[in-house]
Inverse folding.
């Protein structure tokens, strides 16, 4: 194990005229502005699958166990050896333990916001004190390095619940053009037998023939302005063409169709929301999507009533959720085996397909859980928690940073949100000091510096 690594029928059509014609609305398209007109390098760009352990996973019971701590700290699970000497993980993560040489654990993540709403905003922006309009990682990547094929640049699989504001569906100050296409809401997700991707469907009152007629009409409008000097309308026309191709062509639909996968592969990932969402994420990255965020909802056990997708907010019996160490929907004995199954399958699949070299995989929540157990649960704890990173140049078989003896505070090599964000962008080929913003230059991509020790 690497140390420290342990350690658009006049000659010119105005934008206003175009808006009065209805733009994309004439097509009956209600897709968000997911496609950008810019093109980038023709070589395969780096992409990211970001697994969001929404609710805040317990580092003490998964990636950073403390077997020598008192019982009220250490919890009921035992550590097991991994494929990397000196790296131990929870006994409920045997498959991940066997491939520990493919990822790095960061055990010194830290920030100061203990709320789900604020903590999630910190986690997904890479800023300790983000503004209301600070964009998420996927929106920034969509702006700076959009998809080079006719696919959305940014997709979010599975919703978040009501205790966080819907910032994740916007593009922040970059605008809705850079927000994600969200797929899956609560129990309507790729693991459900009757699930079908509906985001590319035109309104029910618009037939395929009417859609073609509307596209021809828009093309005719645009032909009257081919000598226009207005770049906005020209770009808008390109966006229309891409959007039309997206909803009428087969490529995107196939990428979102898990029925294209052999049953054995679907089984390998696990027939639960996290497993099927990660399999879809792999298909999307393979098809050219730049960043896929996946809410790490582990699903609901048979016979248990669905509450929400916040698997990892395990407060225990005091919140009426049952023991955090049980097999209910909010129990680690239910959730961790599904993480083990799905994340290990993803990493192995990416490696076998030659995709891991260009795909960054991240798994982290908005914070960790408190050291002390109360009512068979743990509370929010942003002072110290863990993350898993793999691919895109990240070292395998390493641990970076350390927590103290009780997993309460960072002991060595703290990783702030800014450092984490800078590391993510660096792995994706974007220098942290890259300028961007509504005007193109007012902000840096990150105010931090990447953790260079994490890279091979």
């Amino acid at each position: 194990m690497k140390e420290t690594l342990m350690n658009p029928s006049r000659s010119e059509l105005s934008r206003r005229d175009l808006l009065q014609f209805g733009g994309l609305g004439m097509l009956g398209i209600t897709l968000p502005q997911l496609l950008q007109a810019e093109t980038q390098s023709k070589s395969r760009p780096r992409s990211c699958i970001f697994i969001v352990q929404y609710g805040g996973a317990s580092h003490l019971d998964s990636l950073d166990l403390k077997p020598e701590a008192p019982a009220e700290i250490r919890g009921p699970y035992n550590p097991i050896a991994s494929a990397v000497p000196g790296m131990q993980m929870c006994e409920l993560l045997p498959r991940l333990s066997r491939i520990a040489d493919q990822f790095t654990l960061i055990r010194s993540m830290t920030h100061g916001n203990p709320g789900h709403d604020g903590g999630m905003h910190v986690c997904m922006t890479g800023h300790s004190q983000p503004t209301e309009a600070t964009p998420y990682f996927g929106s920034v990547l969509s702006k700076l390095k959009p998809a080079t094929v006719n696919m959305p640049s940014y997709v979010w699989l599975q919703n978040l619940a009501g205790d966080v504001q819907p910032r994740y569906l916007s593009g922040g100050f970059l605008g809705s053009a850079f927000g994600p296409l969200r797929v899956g809401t609560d129990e309507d997700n790729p693991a459900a037998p009757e699930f079908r991707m509906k985001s590319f469907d035109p309104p029910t009152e618009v037939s395929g023939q009417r859609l073609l007629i509307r596209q021809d009409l828009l093309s005719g409008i645009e032909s009257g302005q081919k000598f226009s000097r207005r770049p906005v309308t020209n770009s808008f026309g390109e966006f229309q063409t891409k959007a039309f191709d997206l909803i009428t062509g087969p490529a995107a639909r196939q990428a979102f169709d898990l029925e294209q996968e052999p049953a054995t592969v679907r089984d390998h990932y696990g027939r639960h929301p996290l497993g099927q969402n990660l399999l879809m994420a792999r298909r999307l990255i393979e098809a050219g999507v730049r960043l896929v965020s996946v809410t790490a909802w582990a699903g609901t056990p048979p016979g248990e009533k669905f509450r929400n997708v916040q698997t990892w907010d395990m407060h225990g019996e005091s919140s009426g959720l049952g023991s955090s160490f049980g097999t209910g929907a909010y129990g680690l004995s239910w959730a961790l085996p599904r993480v083990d199954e799905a994340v290990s399958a993803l990493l192995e699949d990416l490696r076998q397909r030659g995709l891991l070299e260009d795909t960054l995989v991240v798994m982290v929540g908005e914070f960790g859980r408190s050291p002390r157990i109360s009512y068979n649960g743990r509370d929010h704890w942003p002072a110290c928690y863990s993350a898993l990173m793999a691919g895109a140049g990240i070292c395998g078989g390493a641990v970076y940073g350390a927590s103290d003896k009780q997993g309460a505070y960072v002991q060595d090599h703290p990783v702030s949100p800014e450092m984490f964000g800078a590391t993510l962008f660096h792995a994706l080929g974007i220098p942290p000091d890259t300028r961007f913003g509504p005007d193109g230059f007012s902000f840096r991509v990150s105010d931090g510096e990447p953790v260079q020790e994490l890279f091979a």
Remarks:
- The chain has a mean pLDDT of 87.
- Residues 55 and 69 are 24 Å apart (CA to CA).
- The chain has two domains: 8-32+206-255, 67-96+108-199+258-401+411-454.
- The radius of gyration is 23 Å.
